[in-house]
Write a structure and sequence with these properties.
Elements (H helix, E strand, L loop, with lengths): L19 H11 L5 E5 L5 H9 L4 E4 L2 H10 L5 E4 L8 H4 L5 E5 L2 H13 L4 E6 L13 H9 L9 E7 L8 H18 L7 E3 L6 H6 L4 E4 L1 H4 L5
Parallel strand pairs: 1-2, 1-8, 2-3, 3-4, 4-5, 5-6, 6-7
The chain binds pyridoxal-5'-phosphate.
The site of pyridoxal-5'-phosphate has 14 residues, from strand 8 and helix 9.
């Protein structure tokens, strides 16, 4: 594998599935304290989320608005709910009052809708601009050249009820670390380029299979599901 010889930021451990609270503790102990852990609880029952909550985890990620809203209703209100999945514009309203961060703002139409719904309830909502870095056709995200012009032209400034806090990306589904790293580097480059001028603080990249590589390439927020909660049954 072609890891870059940057300073070692991680205590490399062979991660074995233990139980949820041990997994949370193990992540907290091994990731740098500059990196935020989003526990991705999609498809998992409220009981599992409660276990992670009791272990001190407060940020949870979901990819379906309906499911997130049902869990939000049932669980403690100091949980920060992150929407990480593709968002249909007609569902924005359902989560606008409580969502803490939308990682998947990937098109103008969605920015407009989030801004409109946020205005209606007089709130400012934090979002990340999701950029398409994977080579696969299926992955969502704004194409990179559009993202550059969106940032350069300050297009997001017209949405007065949205705070663009950073960038989000998903690498290709592949075992080839060289390709994954190239995709992470692409997003890191974009983040570094606009970080200061656009006041960006969050770079959301890395999941169970590639979070170490993501952290080595500048990620400040990792989205981890199966390595905490176990494999998902769909
Ligand atoms: C499901 C999901 C994750 C977590 O995936 P794991 O491989 O289970 O860690 C992260 N990000 C997004 C956008 C997801 O949909």
């Amino acid at each position: 594998m072609s890891f870059k010889s940057k300073s070692p930021v991680l205590k490399k451990t062979k991660r074995e599935y233990m139980n949820i609270s041990q997994n949370i503790a193990s992540f907290k102990a091994t990731i740098p304290n500059t990196v935020t852990l989003v526990a991705v609880s999609k498809t998992k029952p409220v009981l599992n989320i409660k276990e992670a909550y009791d272990a001190g985890q407060r940020i949870f990620g979901e990819n379906k608005i309906q499911e997130m809203s049902e869990k939000w209703e049932q669980l403690p209100k100091d949980i920060k709910w992150h929407m990480i999945g593709h968002v249909q514009t007609n569902k924005v309203k359902q989560m606008i009052s409580y969502v803490n961060l939308i990682h998947s703002a990937d098109r103008i139409k969605l920015f407009k809708e989030i801004d409109k719904q946020a205005k209606n309830i007089d709130r400012k909502v934090d979002v990340l601009l999701q950029v398409k870095i994977a080579r696969e056709e299926s992955k969502y995200g704004m194409p990179i050249h559009e993202a550059i012009s969106f940032l350069e032209k300050n297009q997001f400034e017209s949405y007065s009820n949205i705070n663009v806090k950073g960038l989000m990306g998903m690498a290709s589904f592949t075992d080839d670390p060289t390709q994954i790293e190239a995709e992470f580097e692409l997003l890191e480059g974009l983040f570094v380029r606009f970080r200061e001028s656009k006041n960006l603080s969050i770079l959301s990249m890395g999941m169970s299979g590639d979070y170490e590589l993501a952290i080595e390439n500048g990620s400040t927020m990792i989205r981890v599901g199966s390595a905490i909660f176990g494999a998902r049954n769909y």
